[in-house]
Design brief:
heterotrimer, A mainly alpha (about 240), B alpha/beta (about 350), C mainly alpha (about 220), A: about 240 residues, mainly alpha, MetI-like fold, elongated, B: alpha/beta, four-stranded antiparallel sheet, about 35% helix, about 25% strand
Chain lengths: ~240, ~350, ~220
């Protein structure tokens, strides 16, 4: 602990911060920042779903684009979200229409880019890996292509699709934090401001809030995922 | 060579023993097959011999020595072991796989290399395959490598756990034949586990039939087991084709063939007609000084047999063929008889009656 | 913050003028990554050995490393700052290492457990000792899976290292953060692409390594 501060003293300050009503109201209060944090997360996830799932399901159904799926994941993993935000920030600023609120669009684009690869690869794998014998049986019973997809492949793929959404959601809810560095106020604002003001109590509170949110997202969506599981209700491991 | 005395195995948590007080003596150079339904403890028994499974009770001796007197890994280096999955090391070349045990016991490189070449030759493996990885080999080739690897340090004893169970029937038949040849040359003491009664009686000098719970129901030569099953269990395990299976073990030479409608080419045409009439057939077989030429239909017999153009018999038997094959030849041929030829020389014919007499007699 | 109004363009002149700094950042980025992955691997091997030796420990180990994996690195930074200080390399490295553990342990354990049972049984039957089976059979056969885990860990870490600028470390994050502060596209782009290129180069090198350590994996079929 810096300057010989005791652990108890530090946590005392944390508790004091948390119980100060001033920190629970206004745009810099916990509820306001939480709303902005979760709002952008949900928007990014929704956009990523729309952009990635239909294509992934189609390609998975046709058993095409396996190489694309692998490449998407690898590039996605190598692309640093902080960098994407940094690149998008000056670009979005140049366009008056998407300039405000400050940093929103740059962060949103980066979060969509972050969310798409795990969603895409899990949906693709789930659909393309559906037991060929079941698919053949479905066709053999006279199902059309779209019936085969809707009644057999998609239900079988659903747990994996959900696993992809969970992976993406956990990553996004953690990374939206960085929006604070381009002026979009999220829970990361506490960390950003705290670093700037050398206020490690505020930094800690920000980190704690983000960590709790990430764990809750993981656990909550894990529960949803279990509900979609067919057969023995075991959680499927996300492909990415 | 191998002696099991009152051996039992009780797995933790199991209600009944997997093997119960089993005693078995296996002579040196003998190939003993262990056969029985699933749950009969045949594999457990096998694995107790090289201590992959430790017996709960009883004593097992190999070469007069209690197996527990050696460290398990030392014991195992002196006992060849072949399993159904083969278990070749995918990260090592065929050569390195075969040289595993010699390497473990510290042979030097030239000696190992020489031994590997020897073993490859022995099991019929091309030299060029030696530097490949196992995944580049066919199932049959992999199984040969498995056998060669088990023979690495020339162990006197070989344990085999359904070694040919994972290959297709045609390859399996070939591997079984090759293995019998190999065993005739090597004279190892072999314990061979199988669930296939045909394989058990075909390969075994003696066969042990085990019942669920590792109970020995009968231990005898396949011939005697098929002729006289010890009890109801053995009889039902041998199945309704027991008689046929016995035929599989008997050579054609065990029956005395009849002359049949076959005459020498120097005979008169009238003799030919006599013979056909006597046998009630419309063809005659021709030999030339003992050598079988073929057969001629009545309609093509002119004034002189020497001008006839004999057609070859589609199926001929040799004295070493099994009676089961003979029966097959008889019932599928239209002559209801099968011709026996020993290196081109006509021996006679056998018919269904001759074969049936062998089963019932 | 003053807002840039002119159209963002790539300023190649800036890149040419700052090649030295870019090279230095590359080295810093690589060093931070190498330390994290190496330390992560050492820890993971140790934890995997525990999980393999005592099967019951696998679930708690993956649970714990799973929690570490779920906690965002930036949150971990904030927990470590009060302990080690804002500019300490330990703050950065501990967060990076804790992110690699789950990936590596899963791959190591799955790799070892994935060795075909028949191969292990044959090794025992041929008279190999348990230790020898582990070093000569199980580990070589698990290497492709282990290297695959290292690849994922390395690529992920390279991306995360861009964040360590927030706790005072170097690497490409320096360009990204400065690019944001000055709304200077070129600098942010250099930081981002530098990180991606580094990830691709390291991944390619590890693929090479994978082929060297398992020449047999490409043979046949």
């Amino acid at each position: 602990m810096g300057e010989g501060r005791k652990v108890s003293e530090f946590f005392g300050q944390v508790v004091a911060w948390l119980t100060d009503p001033a920190n629970w109201s206004g745009s810099r209060g916990v509820p306001g920042l939480l709303r902005a944090h979760v709002g952008l997360t949900v928007a990014a996830l929704a956009a990523a779903c729309v952009l990635s799932l239909p294509l992934a399901v189609y390609l998975g159904h046709r058993h095409r684009g396996g190489l694309l799926a692998i490449s998407v994941v690898n590039i996605g993993r190598a692309l640093p979200s902080f960098g994407v935000i940094g690149v998008m920030f000056p670009i979005t600023l140049a366009f008056a229409l998407i300039r405000s609120p400050l940093g929103y669009w740059a962060t949103l684009v980066a979060m969509v880019v972050l969310a798409m690869p795990p969603m895409f690869v899990n949906a693709y794998t789930g659909v393309s890996a559906a037991d060929p014998a079941l698919v053949e049986a479905a066709r053999g019973m006279g199902m059309t292509e779209s019936q085969t997809l809707r009644r057999v492949e998609l239900p079988l793929a659903l747990p994996l699709v959900m696993a992809g959404i969970r992976t993406a959601a956990v990553a996004v809810v953690a990374t939206v934090t960085l929006g604070a560095w381009v002026g979009y106020n999220t829970l990361g604002t506490y960390i950003f401001v705290g670093f700037a003001q050398q206020d490690d109590v505020m930094v800690f509170v920000g980190g704690l809030a983000v960590a709790i949110l990430a764990v809750l997202t993981e656990v909550g969506l894990g529960g949803v995922e279990r509900m979609t599981a067919w057969g023995p209700a075991r959680r499927r491991r996300s492909v990415d | 060579m191998i002696r099991l005395h009152e051996v039992g195995k009780m797995f933790p948590g199991a209600a009944a023993p997997a093997v119960d007080r089993l005693s078995l003596d296996i002579e040196e150079g003998e190939l003993v097959t262990l056969v029985g339904p699933s749950g009969c403890g045949k594999t457990t028994t096998l694995k107790m011999i090289n201590r992959l499974i430790e017996p709960s009770t009883g004593v097992i001796e190999v070469g007069g020595r209690d197996v527990t007197s050696l460290e398990p890994h030392v014991l195992r280096r002196g006992i060849g072991y072949v399993i159904q999955q083969v278990g070749l090391f995918p990260h090592r070349t065929v050569r390195e796989n075969i040289g595993t045990v010699p390497g473990l016991i510290g042979w030097d490189e030239p000696r190992i290399s020489q031994r590997v070449d020897e073993l490859a030759e022995l099991v019929g493996l091309d030299q060029e395959l030696l530097d490949r990885y196992p995944t580049e080999l066919s199932g049959g080739q992999q199984q040969r490598v498995g056998v060669a690897r088990a023979l690495g340090a020339d162990p006197p004893v070989l344990l085999m756990d359904e070694p040919f169970g994972a290959v297709d029937p045609i390859v399996r038949a070939r591997l079984q034949g090759e293995f019998l040849d190999l065993q005739r040359r090597l004279d190892k003491t072999v314990v061979f586990v199988t669930h296939d009664i045909d394989e058990a009686v075909m390969l075994g000098d003696r066969t042990a039939i085990l019942n669920v719970g590792g109970i020995l129901e009968q231990y005898d030569t396949p011939e005697r087991i098929l002729a006289a099953p010890a009890n109801e269990f053995v009889a039902s395990f041998l199945g309704s084709e027991r008689g046929l299976r016995r035929l599989g073990l008997r050579p054609v030479s065990s029956v005395t063939p009849v002359q049949g409608p076959v005459i020498d080419i120097s005979a008169d045409v009238s003799t030919a007609h006599d013979v056909m009439q006597r046998h009630g057939v419309e063809w005659v077989g021709l030999t030339d000084g003992g050598r079988l030429l073929g057969w001629v239909p009545m309609s093509e017999i002119g004034d002189d047999l020497a001008t006839a153009r004999p057609r070859p018999f589609l199926v001929t038997l040799t004295p070493t063929d099994s009676l089961r094959r003979a029966l097959d030849a008889v019932v599928t041929g239209h002559a209801q008889m099968a011709v026996v030829v020993d290196e081109g020389v006509y021996q006679g014919m056998i018919d269904v009656a001759k074969i049936a007499a062998e089963i019932t007699g | 913050m003053t807002l840039a109004q002119e159209r963002p363009t790539i300023d190649f002149g800036w890149i040419a003028d700052n090649l030295d700094e870019i090279a230095e950042a590359t080295l810093d980025h690589l060093t931070l990554t190498a330390i994290a992955v190496t330390a992560g691997l050492v820890l993971s091997v140790a934890l995997s050995l525990v999980a393999l030796r005592w099967r019951g420990t696998y679930a708690p180990i993956t649970w714990f490393t799973g929690v570490l994996y779920t906690i965002p690195s930036i949150a971990l930074f904030t927990f470590l700052v009060p302990i080690f200080g804002l500019r300490s390399i330990l703050t950065a490295e501990i967060a990076l290492v804790s992110y690699t553990l789950l990936i590596l342990i899963r791959n190591i354990v799955a790799g070892i457990r994935g060795v075909p049972a028949g191969v292990v049984e044959a090794s025992r039957g041929l008279g190999m000792t348990t230790r020898r089976i582990f070093t000569d059979v199980q580990v070589p056969l698990a290497l492709p899976a282990i290297v695959a885990g290292v690849r994922v860990a390395a690529v992920t870490t390279i991306g995360l290292v861009t964040l360590t600028v927030l706790v005072g470390q170097g690497g490409y994050g320096v360009f990204i953060l400065r690019g944001i502060r000055r709304q200077f596209l070129t600098e942010a782009l250099v930081g981002t692409l530098g990180s991606v290129i580094l990830a691709v180069v390291v991944d390619t090198a590890l693929v090479r390594l994978q082929r060297v350590v398992s020449p047999w994996a490409r043979a046949g079929r």
